[in-house]
Write a structure and sequence with these properties.
With 561 residues, the chain is of the alpha/beta class. The protein has helices spanning 30-38, 58-68, 83-92, 112-122, 157-166, 179-182, 193-204, 231-254, 260-279, 286-296, 302-314, 318-325, 332-345, 364-371, 383-393, 428-437, 456-463, 477-481, 500-513, 536-544, and strands at 17-23, 45-51, 72-76, 98-101, 107-108, 126-137, 143-146, 176-178, 206-219, 354-358, 375-379, 399-402, 405-406, 411-417, 424-425, 447-454, 468-471, 490-495, 516-522, 553-559.
């Protein structure tokens, strides 16, 4: 079926797919989401927007899109009906065979609908199809790959439900559903009800995941980790997880999709998963801290303490609890991320070698290379960040800290500092482009600071040639490279989609210094995108033709000796 043909307004009344976009005060991100959907290579869909009585410019923006594209239908609620009711409202408007929800701050690769819809059209037993996705922080620009469970339409319902229980993934709710099935699923007004809805769908038919990253979940606010725990917080979290546990267990145990024994095993697995999930809540193993509170602050009965201890022992977490409380190791999630970084960067350096951390910020990469046994020269011009570096590494004889910027020559430059206090740039051009794209639209860059710059050549004269040099200086990478007059062994350069021309200049400049091969990684994935290294022309061609123009990451250059 040719879905790319031009259709009239009347024809779009009964499309193949309906997209429901519930929104309240969409702000600076809504236009990007609508554009991302309207630019899909699959055209046969209707976009239904339900405005939940927004008080910003959402109404004007949506009416403008509706006037220009017949696929957009805009509805405005007279009063705020709540988020859940707004989700139900857009679904109630769907007359098509397939339906998907869309969030106002998310983005989709142009081929998302084409590729995700295909399994549903090929196999009538599939009821939900989705893809792998990344979380994109619009404040920091950083990305985090979040693979969804490897569910497949070819697997049994029991196999898929087992995968979903082991790895609950809320964003799967933003996949494409068979509408007739979705309208039978119960909506719940409790936390994590989206996970329960996916579980319920899995009992009704097949679920399929496309292995490509085709979906980008927007994060528009900084996540604040839990720093302290009180009785109220503990009981609040128990209440928060109870409806999720109760409704998940009802679906897993009472639906007739597998044998009684298999369903009992899944209930046991669900309990284990929930305890593990609670233990890693908001990136801290807070059950461990709760246990510490039970031991040292709260006057509780032995029964309550024993329940917590038994729960931890049940999931083989009791020994890690004790070691973390005693300060002998970091929380497991941090360990996992650091292990991945250590494994990735170890290919560039050998023990007792030298690493340049240019744009060190607060030392995330410095910490990784110290764990690899590498000496580090960390360069950071921003005073707030440099104070953190000094506190962390000021007494470490394997770290040299330099409170300067790098550039083409030794001079004084004006640095623009973001209100987030961990971001700064010397590139006015880069700043204008990222502000236009909306990535840092919520922050001000009014502070101006004079900083002194030195050059890569001067650093090498003083400290020696590095085995690896990381350059992450928010759009000033090309100017930093121009302070280098000969090829060094390995370099990484951050690239952003708004300023890709600067990255191309960097690649051409390095090629002029010597013979280099290139690769790149997306976001913080710590995985090379090419199976084998490529030449400069191939790297530039790939950057110019990225499938998603919101992708950022790092280009790596390795000298060919």
């Amino acid at each position: 079926m040719d879905t790319s043909r031009t259709k009239t307004n009347k024809e779009y009344e009964t499309p193949i797919l309906t997209i429901g976009l519930p929104v309240y005060n969409g702000g600076a991100y809504l236009a990007g989401a609508i554009d991302s959907l309207l630019n899909q290579d699959f055209k046969d869909f209707l976009l239904i927007i339900s405005d939940n009585a927004s008080s910003d410019g959402t109404e004007e923006l949506c009416r403008d899109y509706a006037s220009r594209d017949s696929r957009v239908k805009y509805y405005r609620q007279e009063k705020n009906i709540g988020a859940l009711a707004n989700f139900e409202y857009v679904l109630s408007k769907a007359k098509s065979d397939y339906f998907m929800w869309a969030a106002h701050d998310d983005r989709w690769a142009p081929a998302f609908i084409t590729k995700v819809l295909q399994p549903l059209q090929k196999d009538s037993s599939v009821v939900l199809s989705c893809s792998n996705y990344e979380r994109v922080n619009y404040i920091t620009g950083k990305r985090l790959l979040r693979p969804t469970p490897p569910v497949k339409g070819s697997k049994s319902r029991l196999e898929n439900i087992s995968l979903l229980v082991r790895q609950p993934t809320p964003s799967m709710i933003y996949g494409i559903f068979r509408t007739s099935v979705l309208k039978k699923i119960t909506f719940g007004k409790y936390d994590f009800s989206d996970i329960v809805m996916v579980l319920e769908a899995a009992t009704m038919g097949g679920i399929h995941r496309n292995d490509e990253i085709l979906y980008y979940v927007g994060v528009t606010a900084a996540q604040r980790p839990v720093k302290s725990f009180s009785k109220k917080h503990l009981f609040g979290l128990n209440y928060r997880y109870f409806p999720f546990w109760y409704n998940s267990m009802k679906i897993i145990f009472f639906r007739n999709y597998a044998s009684f024994t298999s369903r009992c095993k899944l209930v046991w697995l669900l309990n284990k998963t929930i305890i593990n999930t609670i233990a890693s809540y908001e990136k801290e193993l807070f059950l461990f801290k709760i246990l510490k509170q039970l031991n040292f602050r709260w006057k509780v009965t032995k029964m309550i303490k024993n329940i917590v201890v038994k729960a931890l022992k049940f999931t083989n977490l009791y020994e890690p609890v004790k070691s973390i409380i005693s300060g002998r190791r970091s929380p497991s999630e941090k360990d996992s991320v650091q292990h991945k970084m250590i494994s990735f960067y170890s290919q560039f350096v050998a023990n007792n070698k030298l690493f340049y951390d240019i744009g060190a910020n607060v030392g995330n990469r410095t910490e990784i290379f110290l764990k690899l046994g590498i000496k580090v020269v960390a360069i950071e011009p921003q005073d707030n960040c440099f104070r953190v570096l000094s506190e962390k590494y000021g007494s470490n004889h394997n770290v040299v800290l330099i409170n300067k910027a790098l550039g083409e020559k030794n001079e004084e430059k004006e640095m623009l500092v973001c209100s987030a206090h961990q971001l700064s740039t010397l590139s006015v051009d880069w700043l204008e482009k990222v502000k236009t794209s909306g990535r840092f639209s919520e922050h001000e860059w009014e502070e101006r600071v004079k900083v002194h710059t030195t050059t890569l050549d001067d650093l090498i004269d003083e400290f020696g040639e590095p085995d690896f040099c990381k350059i992450d200086v928010e759009g000033f990478e090309f100017q930093v490279l121009k302070g280098l007059s000969y090829p060094i062994k390995s370099i990484s350069i951050e690239f952003t989609p708004e300023y890709i021309e600067s990255t191309i200049k960097c690649i051409n400049y390095l090629s002029g210094l010597g013979s280099y091969s290139f690769n790149y990684s997306v976001g913080e994935s710590m995985v090379f995108s090419f199976d084998s290294w490529v030449n400069a022309d191939q790297m530039i061609d790939n950057l110019n033709n990225l499938p998603d123009k919101t992708i950022f990451g790092d280009v790596y250059a390795s000298r060919i000796d």
